[in-house]
């Protein structure tokens, strides 16, 4: 199955959505390579980057579910690296 490597950039402005965000990330845990979260206390937001390796439809599904959470924005950047996982 062909997969893509991508980064999903997430901005969390509504901290009430963090629990739901973590549930979504757990649901897609098998495609997540790693993630990094940075609390930006001065602005009251959280910035998260999520590295994934999966078919494009799964990446889009994950980003869509994240972006549908209240007060959460997600944008995806795809690498030109594609192919099959080993």
Key attributes of the depicted protein:
86 residues, alpha+beta, Alpha-Beta Plaits, 4-stranded antiparallel β-sheet, 4 strands, 26% helix, 50% strand
Written description of the protein model:
The chain has a four-stranded antiparallel beta sheet, covered by helices on one side. It has 86 residues and is α+β, with helices and mostly antiparallel strands. It has a single domain, classed as Alpha-Beta Plaits (2-Layer Sandwich). It has two helices and four strands, in the order E-H-E-E-H-E. Strand 2 (32-40) and strand 3 form a beta hairpin. The chain is 26% helix and 50% strand. The protein has helices spanning 18-27, 56-67; strands at residues 2-12, 32-40, 45-54, 72-84. The mean pLDDT is 94.
Task: Give the structure's gist in a few sentences.
The protein has helices at residues 18-27, 56-67; strands at residues 2-12, 32-40, 45-54, 72-84. The protein has 86 residues and is α+β, with helices and mostly antiparallel strands.
Average of pLDDT: 94
How much helical structure, as a percent, in the residues? 25-40%
The structure class reads alpha+beta
- The CATH architecture assignment turns out to be 2-Layer Sandwich
Radius of gyration: 13 Å
Q: What is the fold named in CATH at topology level?
A: Alpha-Beta Plaits
Overall outline: elongated
Q: How many beta-strand elements?
A: 4
Question: Strand order across the biggest sheet?
Answer: 2-3-1-4
Q: What is the fourth-level CATH superfamily?
A: ACT-like. Chain A, domain 2
Pattern of helices and strands: EHEEHE
Instruction: Catalogue the unreliable spans.
Output: none
Strand content: over 45%
CATH class: Alpha Beta
Give the biggest beta sheet.
4 strands, antiparallel
Please state the oligomeric state of the protein chains shown.
single chain
Straight-line distance between termini = 10 Å
Instruction: Tally the structural domains.
Output: 1
Individual helix count = 2
């Amino acid at each position: 199955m062909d997969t893509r490597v991508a980064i999903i950039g997430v901005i969390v402005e509504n901290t009430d959505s963090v629990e739901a965000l973590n549930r979504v990330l757990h649901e897609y845990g098998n495609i997540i390579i790693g993630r990094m979260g940075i609390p930006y206390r001065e602005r009251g937001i959280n910035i998260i980057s999520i590295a994934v390796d999966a078919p494009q439809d799964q990446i889009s599904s994950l980003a869509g579910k994240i972006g549908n959470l209240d007060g959460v924005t997600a944008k995806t950047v795809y690498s030109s690296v594609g192919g099959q996982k080993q």
